[in-house]
Structures are given as structure tokens and as C-alpha cells.
Amino acid sequence: MKSILVIVSLAILLVMLALITYQFFPPVRHAPLPTPPAVEKPLPPRPLTLADPHHLPSFHDDTEEESILKAIDLHLKRLALLNQDEKVPFGDMAVPRRRITATLELFRQLLKGRGLQALEQEVSKHFLIYQASGQTGKRDVLFTGYYEPILDARTKPNREYRYPLYKAPSDLQVLDLGDIDPRHAGTKIALRVAGGRIRPYFDRQAIDADNVLTGKGLELAYLKDDLDRYMLQVQGSGVLRLENDRIMKIGYAGTNHFPYVSLGKLLINERIIPEDTMSLAAIRRYYRKNPGEAVRHMNRNRRYIFFREVDGPVTGCESVELTPGRSIATDKRLFPGGGLAFAVCRKPSPKASSETAGPSIVISRFMLDQDTGSAIQGPGRVDIFWGTGDEAGRIAGGFKYDGELYYLLIKEEEIQD
After folding, report:
1. Smaller CB count within 10 Å for the chain: N or C?
2. What is the mean pLDDT of the segment spanning 115-131?
3. Which strands form 237-241's sheet, in the order they lie side by side?
4. What is the pLDDT of residue 96?
């Protein structure tokens, strides 16, 4: 009994001590830690912004007007077949296609009435002038060139001609991620079904080294040089000289949609070729001496291009014949097919070879946006089409210059119903 009383007394004493302690020494209540301010990421520059009216280019066109007139007429025929109410990208905006059409129609009207050189004074009166933000937001646009090569080929393989060009496989399925999330519209992946599972489509190493497409009836023709085959895929179209002097023209038919990796950038990053001497000829020269490196680097670019036989002239992604020196390729997520552009940059001079990027001369001219390319991404990249054959290859091979890119858009009050 005494032990129970002792325990109860101790319990009461402890409770009293706790109450006294709480009364005279209350617990310290810490203020809640302040929430750190949110760090706002800077917004990327808009792809196109209205150009400063006090700092516009002269709009002097350095070449003959027949070529731009031809390019416009060809594209207007194509536009006439398309839905004019459909919205097309114009930087971070979307405009009805009819406004792109009206821009070309008015420019053509002014061109026919006043001539190309007199047109310089008319541009800002009738059109809004937008400038591309460039690679860094400082309006620095990188211009490169492409062309249509002419290559010897054969329809049957032999010991010399053993590198096949493939047609698009029937099991190649392409998914636009915009069908799942509109924010990713234009981003595509290529898939195949194997063993009841969906898998990425075969990459370059699987196709060229493991020969996964061999014997499936997809071979269009055979080349005698693996690097020529690769470069033909980069250009996207070409002319093949076959046996018995037969000519086959081939064009782009599809891709496996892996991210594009540039051979030039690989060689620069590995400090093999300095950036200021980078050219198509320099790339070829190095790989001729180092064929093993050529294979290793080519396989780093997992993207693969498939071809089809075509009739007539080379066309771009807008299904319009390309005009040498007037047609450009841009990122079609940002810029409109058929958009009327004005470019100021440089090009190799007639005395230059394809060995290096210089000497060069300034060019300024109106151009039409009619194509795209796997390496042409963002508001700071433009590829100019220079035509077919060796001379076009000479220009395109050493073409890499910074410049400025503008787009013309008809003012709304100029549009005629």
C-alpha cells in the first residue's frame, strides 16, 4: 500500500513540475521559414519580331528578277490548291494561309509594275517587316547551303557499287507527338512493331552495318562510296547516272526521325578540323584518309533518309520546284511555307573553291521559304538551295555565313476581298 502511495505522489509531483516549467519557461515557437522567391526563367526570344523601322535593310536585290518571279508563280499555283483559312506558323503567331498568298500576290503585282530595283521604296509601304531573332536572340542567323549532287550509280550491286539507297519501308510508322499533346506538334518519332511490341525504328548502324533491310526489295540503286551515300542523305535529293547512260532522279521519301547529328560539329568538337576551315571538301579530305573514323562518325548520326524515284525538277517540303539562289529551307514549326523573305549574308566568290569558306561576297535578295531540313532548327538557321551539279556543290560546300533574315507580311488594310 505504501509503495502505491509513493508512486502516486511521484506522479503528482512530476505533473506539478511540468506545469511550473511550462508557466515560467514556455517553449520557444520558431517563426516559419520564409518561402524562397520563385526564380523566373527568362523567356526565349520571339522567333519573329517587327523590325525597327529606322534600321531596315535597303531591300536591294542583287540578282535578276526573273528567278524570284518564277519562284513566286510556282508557289502561287501550289497555294491555290490549299485551304486558305488554315492557320500557318509565323514566328510565335499563326496567320491564315490566305495572308501568305496575298503577300505573294501583291509583291508580284508590284514587281511586274515597277521592277525589282524600284520596288525597294515600296516594301515598307505595303508590308509589315519582321526580323528573325537568330541563334542567340541577337538577330544572328546562320546561313548554310545545299544542292542536288550528280552521282554514278548502278541498279544492281557489284564489287564496286555496293552501298544501297533504300526506299521507305512499309513497316515504318510515324507518330506526330502533337497528336498526343499539341505543345509538341511537329515533333515526330518513327516506330515499328516487333514481337508484339512497339519499338523505335532501326537506326543507321542497324541499316548499314547489320543490313536489317537487305533483301526486302527496297533497294533503289547502289553507290560506290559510303560517304557519297551519307552526303546524299544530307542533301535530300540527287541525280543518279546509271548504266546505259540512263538518268534517275531521286527525292526524299521519309526518315527514321532520330535526332540529327552533324559530322561537321563532331569534327570541330573533337578538334580534328578547325571551325574556320570547316567545309564539305575538308570533311571529305579527312575521311578519305581515315575511313574507319568516317564509319564511326556516320553512325553517331542515327537518322536515316529514304528515297523515291521522282520525275521533273527537285522539290522541297512544300511540293514546289525549288529555284536556285531563291529557295530557302527553315524550321517549319516557326516559319510559313511560301513565306516571302529577304536575306542579307555572304556567299563564296566566283574565285573561291569548296576547300574553305572564303573569299566571299555580300548578297542581299528576296527569297521564298519552300523547304526544311533535319539540321535546320530554330529561328537562327537557314539553308539556301543552290541548284544541281558541281558548281552548285562548290557554292554549297563552303557556304557558312552569319547574316540577317526578314519576312514580309502584307498589311491587313492592303488585303483585297
Report:
1. C
2. 89
3. 150-152, 237-241, 247-255, 305-310
4. 97
Q: Are 269 and 187 in contact (CB under 8 A)?
A: no
Q: Which residues, at least 6 apart from 352, have a Cβ–Cβ distance to it below 8 Å?
A: 358, 359, 360, 394, 398
Element (H, E) at 299: helix 291-300
Can you list the positions of beta strands (E) in 168-325?
A: 173-176, 188-194, 197-200, 219-223, 237-241, 247-255, 305-310
Grid coordinates belonging to 372 = 526544311
The mean predicted confidence, pLDDT, of the chain is 88
Residues 328 and 382 sit within 8 Å (Cβ to Cβ):
yes
Q: At residue 349, does pLDDT exceed 90?
A: no
What is d(CA 411, CA 417) in angstroms, rounded to the nearest whole number?
Answer: 13
More confident residue, 414 or 130: 130
* pLDDT one-digit tens code per residue, 32-52: 555 555 555 555 789 999 999
Q: What are phi and psi of 401, to 5 degrees?
A: -140, 145
Q: In angstroms, rounded to a whole number, what is the distance separating the alpha carbons of residues 71 and 367? A: 8
Per-residue confidence (pLDDT) for residue 41, from 0 to 100:
56
Q: Grid coordinates standing for 176? A: 506526330
Q: At what angle do helices 226-235 and 280-289 cross, to 10 degrees?
A: 160
Maximum pairwise Cα distance, the chain:
123
- Pairing relation of β-strands 360-371 and 327-329? parallel
